Amino acid sequence: MRQGQLAQAEDVMVREVQAVAAKHGRGSVRWAEAQCDLGTVLMNCDQLGRAVDAFRAAASVDPGSDYEARKDQITYRMNLGIVLRLAGRIEEAEAELRQGLRERLAFYGKEHAGYGFGLEPLAAVLLQRGNLAEARQVVDETVDNFWRNGHERVATAIALRGEIMAAGGETGPLFLGLDQLPEHVVEQVAAAVISQGQGNPAVLTDLAAALEARLGPDHQATLNVLSALANTGHGRVDAIQRVLASYDRQGRDEEALMATLGLALAQSDSGDDAGALASYESAYALANRLRRPELVSQTLRNWGLALKEVGQLGPAEQRLAEAVAVARGGADRETLGRAGVALGLFLQHEGRLSEAEKVIEEGLSALDPVHPDALIGRSHLGAVREGRTCGCGDLPSTISDAFRDFVMAIPQDLLADLRVTIVDHDFKIDVELRREPAKDELERLNEVVQSAHAEFRRRITTRS
After folding, report:
1. What number of other Cβ atoms are within 10 A of residue 5's Cβ?
2. Of 445, 424, 421, 423, whose CA–CA distance to 434 is shortest?
3. pTM for this model (two decimals)
4. What is the dihedral of CA 403, 379, 462, 227, to 10 degrees?
């Protein structure tokens, strides 16, 4: 799972659950442990519905008088509540978390950190439901609990409290007490705010100021929050410039290059074309100093695309062609593929179809078939072969073909054919089987297709 091989991770855990059931029996404490592990893998594979089933199965096992098993069961119920919230089943999530909190109170007592662990996800659900008054009450109790116990989990509770305070319209400082926490715990507060993914500019702005005061403007936690703020689009150019200035002060040239490319894109999006092109020129000089072909090629590619957008077609083609040439001299195949697709699309739109076809084909040969640039390149290649300079092919059909190829690559003796279409912006899947399946075979086939669906979406959305 850590290596990103999600379908394989899921398959390992499904087989483990089956082995534990055979050895210890369904409904045993060991079976509950395996179901929890399966739920964790499924949650990370974006199989939230099946993760709910796994955690619910784990929580349903009677631990009897076994102290450790009872403690584990309380955790399983908390995991169930959390994944229900992630799946958008908020009312169910609240019910499970309230039940879990009652169990924690009876097991740990109100002063124990174990009780605080049950408070925190309940506060998050109450925030999501818009019950801000109770959410604030619960999160304050959470912070107090962890603070009294000296537990580092206070970091995530403080992060959540900041989100709840902002949602309630509070204008004062959102992150009080950072000066009383060790530096590594303050870093955890920053990481928690970013990972919560709310993208609230007010929260990030307040936190950036608090971190700059506590840790300094060049601390990585401060820079991470500024980067997250830039990603919201709020004060984007200013935030990136602050990050870039820090990297320059520290002599972190590769990070400075990435920040400069981000600054150029932000300037372009804000209408400052002259500023964007100047930033690309600076980025190119820096990339050359680093002597990394993949970085030089990436910079040239982005610069060429920006020149095309402002109508400077001659310089645009020059930069895009240079990007391909530099990438050919390097070892990074993905960089070559992306540069080739970019140049090929440019040539297509200029009506130079025979040149475009060769360049796009070279680019596609270097890319993962489900890379976003590969999908766009395949769509455009279809249009090129039909003699079209625009229209750019049928992207939904291209995505459907790629998804079918991806699923068929998973070994499955039962599967004869699989047809994929896009209906209402989602995949419609029709399966043809070689024979009548047994119940467990049909269940496994459904799991494989669902896993492939989630994996395909993940690989498309995480590569840009």
Report:
1. 12
2. 445
3. 0.80
4. -160
- What does the pLDDT read at residue 376? 85
Task: Name the nearest CA neighbour of 122 among 105, 104, 139.
Answer: 139
Alpha-carbon span 405 to 453, nearest angstrom: 12
68 contact partners, CB below 8 Å, separation of at least 6:
none
Which amino acid is it at 39?
A: G
Q: What is the pLDDT of residue 442?
A: 73
What gap in Å lies between CA 189 and CA 195, rounded to an integer? Answer: 10
209 near 193, Cβ under 8 Å?
Answer: no
Whether the pLDDT of residue 294 is over 70: the answer is yes
27 is written with which tokens? 């409904």
- Distance between CA atoms of 348 and 356, rounded to whole angstroms? 5
Q: Are 337 and 328 in contact (CB under 8 A)?
A: no
Rounded to an integer, what distance in angstroms lies between the CA atom of residue 101 and that of residue 96? 9
d(C-alpha 360, C-alpha 374), whole Å:
9
CA 268/CA 277 separation, integer angstroms: 8
Both tokens assigned to 79: 């995991």
Other beta carbons within 10 angstroms of residue 291's beta carbon come to 8
Tell me: the pLDDT tens digits for 170-189? 887 999 899 999 999 999 99
| Of the listed ranges 42-46, 50-54, 400-404, the one predicted with least confidence | 400-404
State the residue for tokens 């989630």.
Answer: 454
DSSP 423: E
Q: For the residues of 325-386, what is the DSSP string, one character each?
A: HHHHTSS-HHHHHHHHHHHHHHHHHTT-HHHHHHHHHHHHHTS-TTSHHHHHHHHHHHHHHT
The predicted-structure confidence for 95-152, as pLDDT tens digits, reads as follows 999 999 999 999 999 999 999 999 999 999 999 999 999 999 999 999 999 999 999 9
Are the C-beta atoms of residues 341 and 369 closer than 8 Å to each other?
A: no
Contacts of 27 by beta carbon, 8 Å cutoff, 6+ apart: 60, 61
Q: How do 426-433 and 415-423 pair as beta strands? A: antiparallel
- Name the residue with tokens 């929260």: 203
Measure the CA–CA gap between 440 and 427, rounded to whole angstroms.
24
Q: Are 299 and 342 in contact (CB under 8 A)?
A: no
